[in-house]
Specification:
heterodimer, A: 112 residues, five-stranded antiparallel sheet, B: 114 residues, mainly beta, four-stranded antiparallel sheet, 0% helix
């Protein structure tokens, strides 16, 4: 049973457009929701994270929106650039940080 | 400050051999996580260790797999009698002394079992 469901599996966006990736979860004990960016052949790198008591968090062109009642959260990449082309993973963990659950990933391709 | 180091980066083993994967966390980090990633899939949690302790190994297969994080030296993920299904990328991530959501990943070890 997948704890964190991520969609879409792949996404093509034109340069300058907005990329939107969605995740959903069931476990209400999850307390932290980080997002990671992974380039081919590399390890994931932390992008941004949010807690359920915050509805939105913005860092540069990256914004997380969080809907606690719907148990959904999403990553928005504004003004998408070809350099943003990578695979993005959402994740979730409880407040003991013993275990992180990852979504299945979204492969983003930003066309120049 | 060097990042998380993993070696080897690529490892080829024949069925039945042992694979040893090493992870050196970032300086000052005493928490290590191991994950497995199959092609085109997300990361699957395997085990969480602190120095000399296994905190959560609920993601680790019960047989053939073991992990340790000794007081000195790197964390080791050991796979005995490898099978073709063990072929994957194995990533470790480290966290500072106080666990947080901040995990810093290494570049991974790509294991191929022939």
């Amino acid at each position: 049973q997948q704890q964190v469901k991520q969609s879409p599996q792949s996404l093509i966006v034109q340069k300058g457009g907005i990329s939107i990736i969605n995740c959903a979860y069931e476990n209400t004990a999850f307390d932290y929701f980080p997002w990671y960016q992974q380039f081919p052949g590399k390890g994931p790198a932390l992008l941004i994270a949010i807690r359920p008591d915050v509805s939105e968090k913005k860092e540069g062109r990256f914004t997380i929106s969080f809907n606690k009642s719907a148990k959904q959260f999403s990553l928005h990449i504004m003004d998408s650039q070809p350099g943003d082309s990578a695979t993005y993973f959402c994740a979730a963990t409880e407040d003991n940080f013993n275990k992180f659950y990852f979504g299945s990933g979204t492969k983003l391709n930003v066309k120049p | 400050n060097a990042g998380v180091m993993q070696n080897p980066r690529h490892l080829v083993r024949r069925r039945g051999q042992e694979a040893r994967l090493r992870c050196s966390p970032m300086k000052g980090h005493s928490h290590v996580y191991w994950y497995r990633q199959l092609p085109e899939e997300g990361l699957k949690f395997m085990v969480y260790l602190q120095k000399e302790n296994i905190i959560d190994e609920s993601g680790m297969p019960k047989e053939r797999f073991s992990a340790e994080f000794p007081k000195e030296g790197p964390s080791i993920l050991r796979i005995q009698q490898v099978v073709r299904g063990d072929s994957a990328a194995y990533f470790c991530a480290s966290s500072p002394r106080v666990p947080t959501y901040e995990q810093y990943f290494g570049p991974g070890t790509r294991l191929t079992v022939t």
